[in-house]
Amino acid sequence: MTLIRSVSGVRGTTGVDITESLVRRYAAAFGSMVDEDVAVGWDGRRGGDALRAAAVAGLEDAGRRVWDAGMVPTPTVGIAVRKRGLAGGIVITASHNPETQNGLKFFSKRGVFLGGEETSRLFELADGLAERADVPPADHGRSSGSASEGGSGPEPSRLDGALRHHLNLVLSSGFVDRERIASVALRVVVDCVNAAGSHALPTMLRELGCRVTALNVEPGRGFTRGPEPVPANLGGLGELVVGERADLGLACDPDADRLAIVDERGRPIGEEYTLTIAARAVLERTPGPIVANVSTSRMMDDLASEFCVPIHRSRVGEINVVTKMEEVSAVVGGEGNGGVILPGVHLGRDACTAAALVLTAVAGVAGGVSELVERSTSYSMLKTKLELPGVSREAILDAMREAFPDVEPDLTDGPKMAWPDRWVHARMSGTEPVVRVIAEAPDPETCQALAARAMEALSRSMEGGP
Predict the structure, then answer these.
(1) Which CATH number is 164-375 given?
(2) Tell me: the pLDDT tens digits for 272-291?
(3) What percent of the chain is modeled with pLDDT above 90?
(4) Considering only the top CATH level, what class is 380-463?
(5) N or C terminus of the chain with fewer C-beta within 10 Å?
(6) What class does CATH assign to 4-159?
């Protein structure tokens, strides 16, 4: 893996692409963009604490005061930035990527991720620092709670109460029905992949009146399952749901901004349902515009039709969804990877918010998760990826046009070829060195055929074939 830079931040292999020196340099560049205090947090993956110390050093290099949030969900840092009136925030995380990788996410003073122009400016500044001979080297003597070695800078201030404020915002949301949830005393199994959600999610669920069984809530022990909350990684959670006779299972990714659901029979229903179910809970109380990215299921279109509200599509990437949500005054939005955005809590994806909305929906039906799934139109979706080193966006477009010559592509974010009841989308990933191919259709055979046709054309384009 090579260093990947996008609106999602910076990611790469720890010790190869993501080093203490690189983190310090990017933090110094970020510090030079702002003129006040900055919050720093991390997602709990092994090796991240040293990188957090390097980020503190870089911010001090730029003359910034640092507020240490510790190991907290990524949205907690964004919320704290907004509440405290800070200039920005940095989270050491590679989100759903494997534990061998790490990275940085950057918040603006509004508590949302940097936009495209801000991100480009940050990268330019970081590249400029790399060319300077007077940039300080990484300080390997730094550790958690110490901002610098030898008294060369002040210790960071503790950002106490940040998670409590975050959870209070979720619990006090008018879209979260605490009485309904408590009245049915849902039994929930939660899997936090031994990372940043390990305290936040179980705590919130218990405060909602749920009977909680916690799985993988020991930060520092490493990831005991694949970090992305996709069905292939949730077998253990499903078994425990059945064994505990639970009403449902919930799983987040390492930095706790995405959530997936396992039904009462132990079956992972797919992360696309998280946004659909959460959005239903919101629309039942306040109908209004909704937003999803172009790779999110048509279930969101069906939901918009059911509630007679407009749906808007954005480019992939949290800040792109947020920007569109602000533009259209959306009541809820998100991405089909399990990322739910509720403006009254946080203008960013948040697993805690998603969980509270999902529980509100589940508590309101007799048939539990399965009934909510049945209320949605049934589609088959296939998400896959191709390693195509050096492929360009132009080559992806040419390949898709060759594969589907009868369709005019939607170019909102890479070519998406759509028909009334099906679609296939190909785009360069902003978080991994791959091309993502996503297809959706009424049945598995059509879905697989669409994806295979796209992947064959993409592979052939790299081989120079006809």
Answers:
(1) 3.40.120.10
(2) 999 999 999 999 999 999 99
(3) 86
(4) alpha beta
(5) C
(6) alpha beta
